Amino acid sequence: MAERSGDMAAMIANTKVFDQYKGEDIYEYSLTNKNGVTLSTLSWGANWYELLVPTKAGKKQNLLLNFPHTADYAEKNPYLCMSIGRTAGRIGGASFTINGKTYNVDVNESDYNLHGGFHGFNFYTWNGKIQDNHIIFNKKVTNELDNFPGNMDVTITYTLTDDDEVIIDYAAETDADSLFNPTNHAYWNLNAGDDPVTNHELYIHSSHRAALNSNKIPTGELAPVLNTPYDFSKNAPLGKAIAALQSIPEKGLDDVFIIDDHDPAKPVAELRNPDNGISVTIFSERNAIVSYTANGWDDSQKFIDKTGQPQVAIALESQTAPNAVSDLKFGDISIEPGEIKHYYTKYKFGY
Ligand code: G6D
């Protein structure tokens, strides 16, 4: 059902059933702006399904990795372009203390909690609706659902503007002291064809990354990136960095970049394809960006129009540094009753 959305006369809105998963209708909500840029999302995991830009060849190009079926997301790669929360990243030992009380949450990878555990934001459907140029998802995330303290009313709003920007607003209120550190796990590939992202260029406004232990849990130390393969403080060829990282077990990026103090009007990161001029520029007030280059992936993942392979895409996840859970030096991810916590990330597209 395509209709002009509200007073955004140039914005075209569409809501349709995408497919079914475990007997439940999964909905696709999309908006197209006056320039022909389309934002599509799914009710499963408040997922970012497509970002389509018009190309000189006259076709539209999707800049995100995506799957044809909800089951692929749920069973093959549960984080792909999903909304992530209550807490992005890894919580060592899957436990944390608030006001002197220790809470234990899902151990869903090794001996830690990754991305909120087995009942994170990406593992269930959200109530969605379109309002003007906003796609609004809501979910009551209860303590019974995910074992995190507090019952949280979470609203994730994707907004598409006629300036080719997508703004994601994460808002939450809770009935008990808890944690809130959401992100979106968008995986970008700015190639029209089936090439990996090794031809892309990357900028991250960061002079240090968080040192990680063998379990990828931040140690609390900072590692300078200057003149290392992790140095994206100036626009750098991603392929050269990946080649230089073949000597480490990860064979790519899977790192927490700590954002240097910055003017919020200036980007925290930019990914650019020099071969076609397509770019995504990220603005955020968060103090970290996790970058993961799909290391070790293979063709068992059947994406739409991309072959699963190492570096098939790069995730750039604006968030508060994961070790804020135990070290306020790395940020404050607390949320208390009586406040509405908002976090924003803006993506500006060039094509
Ligand atoms: C792997 O270590 C990476 C994470 O950074 C990523 O978020 C996840 O895959 C999807 O666990």
Automatic annotation (TrEMBL):
Tell me where the signal peptide lies.
Answer: none
> What is this enzyme's catalytic activity, as reactions?
alpha-D-glucose = beta-D-glucose; alpha-maltose = beta-maltose
Q: Is Isomerase found in the keyword set?
A: yes
Provide the binding site for beta-D-galactose.
H185, A186, Y187, D254
Q: By its UniProt entry, which PROSITE patterns does this protein fall under?
A: ALDOSE_1_EPIMERASE
Where are the catalytic residues?
H185, E317
Q: Which UniProt keywords apply?
A: Carbohydrate metabolism, Isomerase
State which Enzyme Commission number(s) the record gives. Answer: 5.1.3.21
Q: Which GO terms describe its biological process?
A: galactose catabolic process via UDP-galactose, Leloir pathway; glucose metabolic process
**SUPFAM superfamilies in the cross-refs:** Galactose mutarotase-like
Annotated Gene Ontology MF terms?
aldose 1-epimerase activity; carbohydrate binding; maltose epimerase activity
UniProt pathway: Carbohydrate metabolism; hexose metabolism
Quote the function comment for this protein: Catalyzes the interconversion of alpha and beta anomers of maltose.
Protein family per UniProt: Belongs to the aldose epimerase family.
Q: What is this protein called?
A: Maltose epimerase
- Origin species, per record, is Schleiferilactobacillus perolens DSM 12744
